[in-house]
Structure formats: C-alpha cells, structure tokens
C-alpha cells in the first residue's frame, strides 16, 4: 500500500493569544460576562479563553456602530470600496495563517480551509468591494440608502466564510455591523478584527462580540439594531423571527436543509460519485446545503452504491492540519452527540447502516463517514437535518417521483441533479423547491451567485446582486 | 456479463451501442477530481518510495527519426544502471525503440531483466494497411521485442467504424504472440473524455494488455484527467470481466512531481493493485534524470547540478 507520510501544515504561522476580548469601536476590550474556552475539536486541547459579551457590552458595541454609521454611510462608495479591497488583499496575504487557525478552531481539514474557505472569503470581499460605488446600478433605485446598524449572528461550520458573507455586503452598502461568531469557533473572527485595524477601517464600522446564545439574543433584540442577519439552525431562526416580529427590523435567515442529490441512470457515474461525496462529506457534512438525501434511480442503485462504497474506502480521516486529510473532526461534543443520536435512530427505524473500515483518533470528536440504505421518506434520518457525515439513500423510478420525493421535506435550501440530458436538468430545476439547484456538481459557491432557501430553510438571499437587497432600504 | 461481452463485437452496430452506452464523463467533474488528487502532499518516506517505484515503472523511450544504434545502446546502459554512482537505484521497466532498433536493444539488455518494447503499426499516425501493420509487428517480435506499443486507427474511430479498430487490435494481438500488447489511444486526437473511455473499453475488449495515452507526438499527451479516466476504465473492466489491464501514460511527464501525481491517481482510482511496473508504466525520456536528482536530494539534502547525471 502506498502510505502517504504525514504532511502537517505548520501551526507556527499563527500566533494564538491565551485570551481574547471583544472588539468594540476599533479597540479590544474586556467583556463583563464570564469568559469561556474555545477548544481544538480534533484534540480537545484548549486554544484560548474568550470573553463573553453581556447585554451591556452588546449595547456598547451597537452604540459604537451607530456612531460610526454617520461617517461610514456618508462616505462615497468608492472610498468604502478602497477599505474593502484592502481587507480582501490582507486576507489573501494572511490566508495561510487564517486557514490554519480556522482548521484548529473548527476541526475542518486544512485542504478545505486552504483551498475552499479562504479563496471564497477573499472573493466575497473583492466582489462586494466592486459593488460599493455602483449601488445605483444594482436595480434598487438610483440612490439606495443603507439600513443602519446590522446585527449579525453566524454559525460554526464556516466561521470566516459566513463572516465574509455577512460583513462584505453590509459594509459595501454603507451599513455598520456588530457580529457575533459562534461560541465554538470565535478565533478567526477575532483575527479578522485585527485585519480591520491593519486596514485602518474607521473605528466602530465592524464590531465583534463573542459569547453564546444569550449574547446573540441581546444583539438581535437590541432596539437600535436595524437589520438582523442570521445563519444557523431552524430552531434558533424561529426564535429570532418571533422576537423581531413587529419591531420594524429587516431580517434575513439562512437555516437548515435536507437537500436531495438526485442521480439519474444516464448520469456520468464517476463524477456523480464524486459529487455525492462532495455533497455530504465536505466539511464533515457540517453544511446547511449538504446533499444529505441521495435519490438514485432504481436501475443503477446497486452499481452506484458499490462505487460509492469503494470511493468512501479511500477517504482519509484524521488530523485536520494534515494536507492529505479529507475528513476532519466533528466541531463539538454536542454536535457529535446529535449525530450519534440520529444515526442510532436510523438503525432503530430499520435502515441499513454502513461505514468504511476506518480507525478514529483516540482524542477529539470523530464520526466515520456513514451511509444508510433502505431509507424511507418517513424515517427521521430522511427528514431531520443531521449536520454530520451521514447520507440517507432513497430510490426512485421516474423523474416525477424524483421531484415529488425531493420536494417532500420541510426544507428547501439546495438540490443536485445528475444527468447527461440538458432538457431534464432545466425541467428539474423549474420543479424543485430549493434556493440553489446544482446540475452535475454540488456544494459549489461563488460570490456572484445568490444563496438562500424556501420554507424552513429561511428567507432572504445572500451573495450576488440579490445579496445587496438585504442591506439596502428598498 | 462475460458471455454477453463476447457478443458485443459481433457487428459494428452492437459494438457502437455498447460503447455509447457506457456512462458518460463529465469534463468539469473529471478535471476537478484530477486537480484535487494533484494536491496530495507526498513527502519524506512516501516520496522516497514513490521515486523508486516511479523509476521501476519508467519505459525509457527514444522515438526520433535520428535514432542510431549507438544511441540505443547508450540508453540501454542507462536503463540498467540509471545512476552509475549509486547501485541502490533500481532498473527501469523497459526501453522503447522503433522496430529496426529492437535487435540492438535486445542485445544490449541481455540478462538484465529490462524489457524491450517497440512501437509498431506505422507509428505514430497508424495510417497504413493492416498487412503492413501486422508484418511490422511480427518483425519487431521476431527481433526479440517483449512488448509492442501499437497505435489505433484514430480516423476509423472518429468515423464511428469501431469494428475496424477492434479487428485491427485483434489482428495485431495475434501477431504479437507472447509479446505484451500496449494499445496507444492517442487521446489528444480523440478530443472528448467520452471518446477516451470508449476507446479504452474498445482496446480492452479486443485483447490489449495495456492501454496507453499517447505517442508523445501529439499535444495534449498524458494529462491527469485522461489518465484518471483510463484508470477508471481498467478498474471497471476488471470488475466486469475479471481481466486486469495495465495503464501507461506517455508524453509530457517530465518531473518527479508529475510522476508522483500519477501514482496518487493510480492509488486512489484503480487501487494499489496497479502500483507495480506490471500494471502501470510511465512513458518518458526526460523524467528519469529528474527522478534521480530528487532521489539524490532526499539522500544528501542537496541538489546536484544537471552535469552530475548522464545524458543518455
């Protein structure tokens, strides 16, 4: 066997401080709440102690953003663009450092943080920097106005990418922001705060408050916040929608998903297998638009599953900092428990569980790539979002049945269609109730392309020209 | 499946419907997969093993009109002792020459274990009559060639005359006797990845022992995605028929990095069963010196200049 020797990326490129404060009005400040620890999920090693922002700290951050809004929104778009371009360039220059920190704090393989996350983060800042002086041509009136202070709460699966999706369009449109990163992955946001200082961004334009749910709630409910943007679970999304109802705040929610990845018998099978792997095992399945329900045409189900199982045998699970790792660690003990619970439920309900032979590291949070076959629409694993490397396989016979099964879910974030027939792709795309429909690919992101969901997957769009609407008074 | 595969070649119609019924190849997806595998980081012990394995897989090749018996002898000497200063360097798999130089190569390599391969069948265009092609093959085999690298008739293939290509391969295989047959698809002229997959299956169905990307005379030659598709084909062919076929990318593989990427592709596509000179070869002429240079760098920590490696 051709054993690849370990090829670890050096962690010396990033300097992790023992403790971090909040970033308010251009300065790092202590939080008044009880601080918490953030750990490396691959080893359970404590990386740093991070401040919790109390209601009072959140208020200071919102006031700082409010104060900065006056000058920032009055600045010509071309001036704002200069700051955003500068931030984008610094992100590129420091991308190795950011990628290593992201992998340490999140558990995702360095191959993904280096080759997917960071290039996309920089691309989002570049893209929205380009819009900052062209807002009059975006289709929202000749002189669209910003909303004010944006309160943004982001998840732990793509900490820096979600930050870019939120901050770049907000700033381009002239808003100022208070952002709360997830409590398990705050470190790259705090490094981003340092980048804001390096770029001489005016104080108060970007504020970062760390903490758990209560900090997020304080931010979302703050009376002086004009716009709430949230990415995360459907459950928390519901609470947010309830709490801001009637307040006049604008809201966008990017919530869960249970995407169908539909493979027809005439698909390019080897590429479909890659697409299925990328659809569900990318980022350990911690992807809201993950292709967690494989719908395969019955005529090729056996053949495709054999290929898929063989392919899973080549996935490399282990140290996220090893450049050859394909599957890293589960982000937290809580998430691991949830994945285990749902997988056990899958077995109890009668589905067949399969994982390739793979040894899991002793320390840290790990879950092997897992496939469930013989799944019925009524099984919990076919209905609930697992948010882990667990694929449910269902079959169909006709295109109509595929559409019916794909849409039979409370979610509607994404879908994938695999077929060599162009007319079928267009027909499927018009029938599928999902915000994104990928054809012959999966989990591809681009700053120019809008992203968002139907039904319980949320409302509003991020990315592209459409993403500007959420941050403009239109 | 084996019995029905025999019927596949009963007419051009059945052959065409079989080949066109193979799963398609999505170019974007295949390119992405090959690019991803190209980012594998092969270091230290794995790199040392890969370099030695790659040396053992090299078909040291000279296919110039200006080739001379002297040049072939010099190349054969290098094939047996790639680095005269370091006896731990393994021998290469074979030397590959034109048919009229086979006798010289056989003589020079006697008892070394290094095989002699020869390109026959009106290499590199393949544009001649079947009689000439079989005669040329028989001459090369009679001169002592262990392996024959034949080119397919791309004109017939692109015109959809799969039967003609099939029958030619069968005839050449018969003319080979005990010699191994490598079928060159010249993928740069086949243009689509779907064609690469079809030509691979066609060559395997007709009895080819190896499928080979290119003559080295047409660009693009051995790209990563094309090699990926051919590796998928041999893997699927083994699963379907129980018969194992080798793969040989040739042309454009110049650096150790290129060679290591190929080995990663083999490992993660067809599997470790193909990681041997019996089942995977690298058709190359300038690759060997880079492998030797990297090998020495790993042993000593320093790069030697190009003058420290022989030119033959």
Automatic annotation (TrEMBL), chain A:
Transmembrane segments: none annotated. GO terms for molecular function: aldehyde dehydrogenase (NAD+) activity. The active site is at residue 254. Its EC number is 1.2.1.3. Coiled coil: none annotated. The keyword Calcium does not apply. The keyword Thylakoid does not apply. Keywords: Oxidoreductase. InterPro entries: Ald_DH/histidinol_DH, Ald_DH_C, Ald_DH_CS_GLU, Ald_DH_N, Aldehyde_DH_dom. Residues 30-473 form the Aldehyde dehydrogenase domain. Belongs to the aldehyde dehydrogenase family. This is Aldehyde dehydrogenase (NAD+). It comes from Streptosporangium lutulentum. The lineage of its organism: Bacteria, Bacillati, Actinomycetota, Actinomycetes, Streptosporangiales.
Automatic annotation (TrEMBL), chain B:
GO terms for molecular function: deoxyribose-phosphate aldolase activity. It catalyses: 2-deoxy-D-ribose 5-phosphate = D-glyceraldehyde 3-phosphate + acetaldehyde. Its EC number is 4.1.2.4. Pfam families: DeoC (PF01791). It comes from the Bacteria. Pathway: Carbohydrate degradation; 2-deoxy-D-ribose 1-phosphate degradation; D-glyceraldehyde 3-phosphate and acetaldehyde from 2-deoxy-alpha-D-ribose 1-phosphate: step 2/2. Keywords: Lyase, Schiff base. It is an enzyme of class 4 (lyase). Belongs to the DeoC/FbaB aldolase family. DeoC type 2 subfamily. This is Deoxyribose-phosphate aldolase. It comes from Streptosporangium lutulentum. The lineage of its organism: Bacteria, Bacillati, Actinomycetota, Actinomycetes, Streptosporangiales.
